[in-house]
Design a protein that fits this description.
Shape: globular
Structural class: alpha/beta
Largest sheet: 5 strands, parallel
Strand order of the largest sheet: 2-3-1-4-5
Helix content: 40-55%
Order of helices and strands: EHEHHHHHEEHHEHHHEE
Low-confidence stretches: none
Radius of gyration: 18 Å
């Protein structure tokens, strides 16, 4: 498998690092959040108790439960093998960078190249508060982070604790990036960016299709990656999930 794996707690910077790595080097991006509802549907079809219970409750009802019960419905362990199955179905070229909380040592295929981002707890708390707002951080996130950090520590795998981890991650994967394969040409890079954006749109369509959700998809705006040809671009655009244009999505003055 031509895959680079990045794990870590919520708020550890996995998504940011993976997006930058994919953009700079021409990699396929697999962001685990975009597969959340597909994985939950798969778990429901398999009759997994945590998934069945989770699907019977609204987000507010789940959030009100004790953390231990929320963890059981998070499918932390179950989603790891699903992720491996997903990645096996992807093209072998270019390299894929996979990021997600379910990327843990036990789920990696033999020979998997992986690193975990585990910044200090106070850094995670600050980032999650900035992301969700004071008092709005999901109560599951920090306990989940502690669980992941403990798993990683027991396994003795590669860990990066720096707050700004990108340079260290890039150095960690330097040999893999040198071997490739990497995307070639502007069109292939655009297709990879569009694939990543389409996955975000599909994630929210699946979420909005849940019976307990009453929001209209046309009213939901999310951040999508600028699909320009600049390998260092970090721009994003707010767009309704049904409004991705057939042509490249570009920030102002980008091409």
């Amino acid at each position: 498998m031509n895959v680079l794996w990045i794990g870590g707690p919520p708020g550890s910077g996995k998504s940011t690092v993976a997006r930058r790595l994919a953009r700079r080097h021409g990699l396929r991006l697999y962001a685990s959040d975009t597969r959340t509802w597909a994985h939950r549907d798969r778990a429901v079809a398999a009759g997994l108790p945590g998934a069945l219970r989770g699907e019977s409750l609204t987000p507010a009802q789940r959030a009100a439960l004790p953390v231990e019960e929320q963890l059981a419905m998070w499918l932390h362990e179950e989603r790891g093998p699903m992720t491996v199955d997903d990645v096996r179905e992807l093209p072998s070229s270019p390299l894929t960078v996979v990021e997600g909380t379910q990327v843990v040592p036990a789920m990696l295929p033999p020979g998997g190249r992986a690193v975990w981002l585990v910044p200090p707890t106070e850094v995670l708390r600050e980032r999650l508060t900035a992301r969700h707002g004071p008092g709005e951080v999901p109560g599951l996130y920090l306990p989940l982070g502690e669980l992941i950090a403990a798993e990683v520590a027991r396994a003795g795998v590669a860990v990066i604790t720096a707050e700004d981890a990108f340079d260290e991650v890039e150095r960690f994967f330097a040999a893999d990036l040198a071997r490739g394969p990497l995307a070639e040409g502007r069109q292939e890079r655009w297709r990879l960016l569009r694939e990543a954006n389409a996955a975000v749109a599909e994630q929210y369509r699946a979420f909005l299709a849940k019976p307990w959700n009453t929001t209209e998809s046309a009213a939901v705006a999310r951040l999508f990656l600028c699909e320009c040809s600049d390998s260092e671009c970090d721009a994003s655009l707010s767009l309704a999930i049904d409004d991705l244009p057939p042509t490249p999505l570009l920030a102002a003055d980008h091409r």
